[in-house]
Amino acid sequence: MHNIPVAKVLETAEHVYLNGEWVPVEQARLSVFDHGFLYGDGVYESMRAYGKQVFMSDQHFDRLERSARCLGLKLPVRGEQLMDLIGEGLSLNRLNDAYIRLVVTRGVGPMGPDPAPCQNPQLILIVRDIPPLHGQKRDGIRAALSSVRRCAVDSATAQIKSLNYLVTVLGKLDANRMGVDDVILLDSRGFVAEAPVANVFIVRNGIVLTPAPSSGILEGITRRVAFDLLSEAGLQVVERDLTPYDLSVAEEIFLTGTHAEIVPVCEYGGYPVGNGMLGPVTSILLDLFGAATGKGKRNGA
Ligand code: PMP
Q: How do residues 29-44 score in pLDDT, each as one tens digit?
């Protein structure tokens, strides 16, 4: 734990953790020779705290470990220590509910992509009040199919939560260009993969369907939560390949993600999904997710 004088905390603006200490955002500086910046060499996790508790913290820490392992990156801080740091960030920035971005870069090194000379990975922690990606819309968003494809499962970076997020950026550009709130990306085979920063589910004939990791999706933690909550509620939830046709004829479509939370999609490709209103399965999931995170309670629902 870091000893930050109370008087200093009270007068502070937002702080971020960088280079072993909490610094005001304006003073946070990263070297231009950090390989995270130069080569996208690093990993990250995004989490949310609800009522000061990090939601699904073990799962997020595990995924961080797995991402780091794929890159041969040594995490400077882990487990309990990470949890303490997040706790400090929540207190310092006076937040109960927060979006938490944990970034580990390869650190400073000579020019050239070889990570070997980079001896000091950098841990960056942003703990900030960020609302859900698409707001709290129960009436849903407008989505369309993107021409951008997720990386094939046999590509080096598929499924790793790394600092390489160009596919996501291209997907967002596509959404902006088409004038929709979000897009859905296909995998390299032409099956449905996911949205730029969220997993996708559909409901067909009352069955909840979602693509499997073999589509090169990020194995979302909110996806797993949604899967379990709906299964426990007695719904049939199945992982399988989905075609663009499945999206077009779905009774319901929804997205899941840490930043996005649970997002109903009420228009897809210019047509209403189902009757264009919040569907019954998505509605149940929104309620269950609200209860699981404590959000519903705090919002007085
Ligand atoms: N897919 C991608 C590509 C993402 O970046 C994210 C956000 N982490 C997700 C899906 C959703 O995953 P999670 O529920 O773990 O946030």
A: 999 999 999 999 999 9
* Cβ atoms of 264 and 250 closer than 8 Å: no
Distance 195 CA to ligand 1 centre (A): 9
CATH number 1.10.10.10 is the correct assignment for the domain at 141-298: no
121 alpha carbon to ligand 1 midpoint, in Å? 23
pLDDT the model gives residue 136:
77
6-128: CATH topology is: D-amino Acid Aminotransferase; Chain A, domain 1 (3.30.470)
Residue 88 Cα to ligand 1 middle (Å) = 25
| 257 Cβ closer than 6 Å to some ligand 1 atom | yes
Q: Are 203 and 173 in contact (CB under 8 A)?
A: no
pLDDT digits (tens, 9 = 90+) for 114-146: 999 999 999 999 999 998 888 877 889 999 999
User: Two tokens at 189?
Assistant: 């085979």
Instruction: Name the pairing type of β-strands 192-195 and 198-204.
Output: antiparallel
* Atom 12 of ligand 1, nearest CA residue: 220
pLDDT bin (cut points 50, 70, 90) of residue 298 is: very low
* Residue located nearest, by CA, to atom 4 of ligand 1: 197
Where are the domain boundaries for CATH 3.20.10.10 in the chain?
A: 141-298
